[in-house]
Amino acid sequence: MKKRLILSIVVLLLSACAQDPSIHTTRHQIDDLRDDDRDGVINQRDICSSTPNNVAVDRQGCTEWQIEEKANVISFFFAMDQDQETQAHQAPLSQLIKLLDQHPNASVILLGDTSSEASLEYNQALAKRRTYTIRMMLERQGIESTRISEQEFSQVTQLTQYLHARKRRTIAVVMTDVLSVKPTWNIFSSEQQLTKSNVSEVDNEN
């Protein structure tokens, strides 16, 4: 009798263990899986709910920022075969002084240029006299000489690319840092970077 009772108990235990476990849960969906601002981060995790379109965002849905270098270009024009300061130079000079005051750590590069008349040697000397004129104007306004450097049109430098056409002028180039949103990547991003212009030119030609 006792043996039958023990056997019955063992059979019941084994049959209980053989049953398949339940894999179903009864958890209700309470997460907000929508993406109202369409930045790729669901509302449940998005702490920045109104990011602009086509910008990169972090894991919490907030805009990612980057620092870009911008070339600010201000032109000083001269008459034919002239290199002296004129009244027409006061407006671009004021703009340049203001820009340098706003960016005290920035320097300015003066690019001397001429029209295509005359020989190369003559125009090189003329271009140097023109950059020297602008340098003196800046120094009289309190800009330290160590913040000013000079180049001329015949040199091959990173900045002579701004001399797209030969003109009777000196170009002042000031590089500044600009905070901007980081754009999202797409198949056209590389091409856009190659053609993108980070040049802001103030043209004061009459």
TrEMBL record:
InterPro entries: OmpA-like, OmpA-like_sf
Superkingdom classification of source: Bacteria
Pfam families documented for this protein: OmpA
Record-level GO cellular component terms: membrane
SUPFAM superfamilies on file: OmpA-like (SSF103088)
Record domain OmpA-like: where: 63-178
Alphabetically ordered keywords of this record: Membrane, Signal
Residues spanning the signal sequence: 1-18
Gene3D superfamilies the UniProt entry points to: OmpA-like domain (3.30.1330.60)
Official protein name in the record: Membrane protein
Taxonomic source organism: Vibrio galatheae
Lineage: Bacteria, Pseudomonadati, Pseudomonadota, Gammaproteobacteria, Vibrionales
